[in-house]
Structure formats: structure tokens, C-alpha cells
Amino acid sequence: QVQLVESGGGLVQPGGSLRLSCLASIRNFGSRAMGWFRQVPGKEREFVAAISGADGSQYYADSAKGRFTISRDNGKGELYLQMNSLQPEDSAIYYCAATPAVGMKRSPNQYNYWGQGTRVTVSA
Fold first, then answer.
1. In the chain, what is the straight-line distance between the N-terminal and C-terminal CA atoms, in Å?
2. HSE toward the beta carbon, residue 31, CA cutoff 13 A
3. C-beta neighbour count of 1 within 10 angstroms
4. DSSP strand pairing (92-98 vs 34-39)
5. pLDDT band at 105 (very low <50, low <70, confident <90, very high)
6. C-beta of residue 58 within 8 angstroms of C-beta of residue 49
7. CA–CA separation, 121 vs 124, rounded Å?
8. Pairing state of beta strands 46-51 and 92-98?
9. 3-state SS class at 27
10. Of 10, 43, 7, 24, which Cα lies nearest the Cα of 111?
């Protein structure tokens, strides 16, 4: 019934760029705040970026600000994360997530639905 599918991950050199996509099969996509999180094995899931369902307002973790851009295409039901100037510490599995609310959320516990993740590896 509900499915979020990430794509676009892969291996990239330090300083390189990747564009992640999330195809969302979910009701009322355009009214939901959406987010990107990342996780390294053995560590907690980390907030990366969020975007509101109301006006497209964006919020970024300090680690992402200035390098990453979150966006959405409500007509296509897609969420994006453009990642530039990637560094090894950005390596993780990146997850697309959906909330039931309009306003942006920063905690993983506030998201109802999750994709399967796409792996990003930054290495020379």
C-alpha cells in the first residue's frame, strides 16, 4: 500500500556529487513533510534534511547545509537530495522518510514510513 523507493546511491570520489531520488507511492504526498536520514552500522540514524508539505520550506543538519539540497516534485511523487562536495564522512545508507504532518520533523521517531535505503560510499 505504501512504498518509498530510494535510488541514486553509489561510489563517488571525495569532492564529487550524487543526486538521490525517492519515488513515493503514498497518499497525500504533497501535504506530507518529507525527510532524508542516513545511518552507519553501529550508529544512530542521523537527520540530514527535511522539506515541508505546505510551502517547500527546507531545513538542514549543520553537516549538510551549504552542500546538500532537498527538493520535491509533488506531481511526480518524488523527493530528491542533491549532494555536492561529498566527503568520506558522508558515507552511509541514506533513507527517504515520510511524516503524517505538514510541518518538518527532525527526529526519526516522528516519521511513519521509510524506504529501504540507498548506499552512498565516498572514497578515492
1. 40
2. 4
3. 5
4. antiparallel
5. confident
6. yes
7. 10
8. unpaired
9. coil
10. 24
Residue type, 123: S
Query: Hey, what's the cell of 87?
Result: 566527503
Dist. CA 12–CA 50, nearest whole Å: 23
Give the chain's length.
124
Q: What is the pLDDT of residue 104?
A: 83
21-60: per-residue pLDDT in tens? 999 999 999 999 999 999 999 999 999 999 999 889 999 9
Rounded Cα gap, residues 31 and 28, in angstroms: 6
Query: Which residue from 16, 14, 17, 18 is spatially nearest to 6, judged by alpha carbons?
Result: 18
Q: Please tell me the predicted confidence (pLDDT) of residue 115.
A: 98
**108, 93, 98, 106: which is closest to 78 by C-alpha?**
98
